[in-house]
Amino acid sequence: MTRFIPNLGRRLIYLLTIILAIIFILPVIWLVISSLKLETELVRWPLAWFPHNPQWDNYIQVLTNPRFGFFDATLNSLKLALLNAVPNVFVCAMGGYALSRINAPGRNLTLTIMLSTMMIPGTITIIPAYVINSKLGLVNNPLLWLLWGLGGSAFSIILFRQFFSSFPKELEDAAEIDGANPLTTFLFIFLPNARAVLSVTFLFSFAWNWGDFFSQSLYLTAKNATLAMKLATAFKTPMGRPIYSLSFAGIILYSLPLVILYLLLQRQIVKGIVTTGLKG
Q: What letter does residue 222 receive in the DSSP assignment?
């Protein structure tokens, strides 16, 4: 009897997990099915769950529509995401290393100030940031995303701090005996062993930039429009009504890079989420 109760609890947890997974994945399945429908099937009542004849041509239209410009918009999105994500990962790794391993005056105060910046709503800084960036000539300039990346992220720095805090002190002692300074220790000992957290931070940063519609529409013109900007306006009738079938197909194509990136980094991401939860 005592064995049966824990087994029953485990089975209930598995059942609940499966139910929640189905609930979360149903909108994605519906999106994929809807992207293969005719426009008339999407607005017909009673609702048609499956397309009578799958319209793979919807995806071809998205890829070849000159007004949408899928490949140019994809290149713009990729450029901005990488310009921000790559330096952001490296800067945050350096910040996390400094806060966890270098016992410098004001370290705790710096961490407190950094944590406090996460409590400031982003909407408060929209207008001042735009005025400053406009005066610096950074509107419609990809350099702005590079500078944002070099500025780092408080959340990512804390992730690295938690991870680096779990490293044994003997690693630094051995490196110091060999004549390594803190920068050399960081580059050749800590950074190569932080692949898991590097993967997590890169994915978070890349995904945020890839899906960021607001900043892109605020700072970029139509000439440098990204996929997020294009999807909001490209697929409409002359009367301004959205063409849902093409929009859904565009959303699927828009999401594919993130899905592929997650699948490639999946093992490192799971490991990174686990290890960054360790206490320093």
A: G
Q: d(Cα 242, Cα 114) in Å, to the nearest integer?
A: 43
Strand partners for 231: none
Q: In the chain, what are the domains?
A: 65-275 (1.10.3720.10)
Best CA proximity match to 191, nearest among 173, 209, 171? 171
pTM over cut 0.90: no
Q: Over the Cα atoms of the chain, what is R_g?
A: 24
pLDDT at 275: 58
The span from the CA of 29 to the CA of 50, in Å, is 11
What pLDDT does 271 receive?
Answer: 67
**Angle CA(46)–CA(52)–CA(55) in degrees, nearest 5?**
115
Q: How far is CA 198 from CA 73, 89, 215, in A?
A: 27, 7, 24
Give the Cα-Cα-Cα angle 233, 239, 243 (nearest 5 degrees).
Answer: 50
Which residues, in sequence order, are CB contacts of 85 under 8 Å at separation 6+? 149, 202, 205, 206, 209
Identity of residue 273: I
pLDDT of 4 over the 70 cut: no
Q: Which two tokens stand for residue 71?
A: 């490949």
